[in-house]
Amino acid sequence: MSDDIGIRVATAADADAVDIIIRAAFAGTDFGHQGEAELVRMIDGDGDTLVSLVAERDGVIVGHVLFSRMDVDADGQPLAAAGLAPVAVRPGLQGQGIGDALIRAGLDVLREQGIAISFVLGHEAYYPRFGYSPELAARFASPFAGPHFMAMMLDSGAPWPLGGRADYAPAFGRLG
Ligand SMILES: CC(C)(COP(=O)(O)OP(=O)(O)OC[C@H]1O[C@@H](n2cnc3c(N)ncnc32)[C@H](O)[C@@H]1OP(=O)(O)O)[C@@H](O)C(=O)NCCC(=O)NCCS
Question: Domains plus CATH for the chain?
């Protein structure tokens, strides 16, 4: 990632710029709907945002990542958990490491917060580089279970739970 890109915590004043980045980034994908921008607002409104970071160049927001609170039970115990979604980088600036830097910075903040596990629903060619594994996620019952459902222990030395259940924040269930 080039030196002129900075990463910082998103503020309420960034909401419109974040919206624009998400809409632009997802417009070119085959995910169909444009619900991600709305999702970010709903998660925030519900108080379920754990980490929201923006990437900035010359004072202009060019990327965003959100991690939201999940309800996870592992081996019969609640486990502090964060779902990664969405992550978006402005078209034209993709493939330069901005998404990578946003995700790694977000994972660091989650570690500082004492979050134990993170889940993501996404491309299996992208997320394993951060430590996400479909094998770990497969141990958890979830409506999103499948090859794109991945998880990682934020302490890489922590033992993997044997099984459990993983539910995203309620806002995900309200996606149109
Ligand atoms: C996905 C996204 C956030 C990645 O950010 P980025 O800054 O472009 O990515 P980076 O520069 O950090 O990493 C580039 C790598 O990601 C891969 N990549 C980028 N978008 C990808 C996608 N949608 N699916 C799979 N791989 C993708 C590139 O092929 C490249 O892989 P390589 O390092 O093996 O060559 C960005 O491309 C984006 O906003 N895409 C549109 C929205 C989206 O798909 N969000 C994720 C939903 S799961």
Answer: 5-173 (3.40.630.30)
